[in-house]
Amino acid sequence: MLEDNFQHKGLRKKLIEEIRKKGIQDENVLKAIHAVPRHWFLDSVFLQHAYQDKAFPIDEGQTISQPYTVAFQTELLEIKPYQSVLEIGTGSAYQACVLAEMGAKVYTIEYNEILHRKAKRMIDILRYDKKIQCFLGDGSQGLKQFAPYDGILVTAGAPAVPEAFLFQLKIGGKLIIPVGDNDTQKMMRITRKEEKHFTQEEFDNFSFVPLLGKNGWKS
Ligand code: SAH
Fold it and tell me: Whose CA is nearest to atom 11 of ligand 1?
């Protein structure tokens, strides 16, 4: 069932060229996207579309992010092998697997129990379980247990930057988070330069499903 044939690999190569043209330059990011068979993370009705640069519905009214968006966020994170990353919003686990392919130690948290269970099963089947640990809970408060992190990647749109994330970063660590209203969010990168000194950069607009929970939108 989980086959990855030459046709899939060919489609993935095309996808890589497409997102390279859209501006992704980090070869390690492109390699990681190439390494993860995205069609394994989609419902079978969308299989034919797995290598289009589009977001698709997964269960529970949620979405698997567009490959370009996954690449963009991963590039901003500038993660190096053996560094730790906390991902907020496991969803299909696709982004988590891309981070694992970057060599990161990944902690990922999901609010929705059905998605969490499905993602965990997928990670076990694909043998990413040594590299990715899945948690069920409200990720808008981060995950104190394994903090501080080299990177925190938020894959749902937040109304504002939750302070909890800032103080779960290492010095030099980066938070990548889309912030805005329900329709569009600005991608932000916040770097913890010193204990209490942070810098903030703003990038393009994106459209994510809402971050729920204590520091997110009220459900
Ligand atoms: N990274 C995912 C895409 C995530 S879509 C992938 O690669 O497929 C956003 C996800 O964030 C949804 O699954 C949603 O249930 C989850 N989410 C929303 N609010 C959350 C919260 N407070 N904590 C953890 N997950 C949350």
Answer: 89
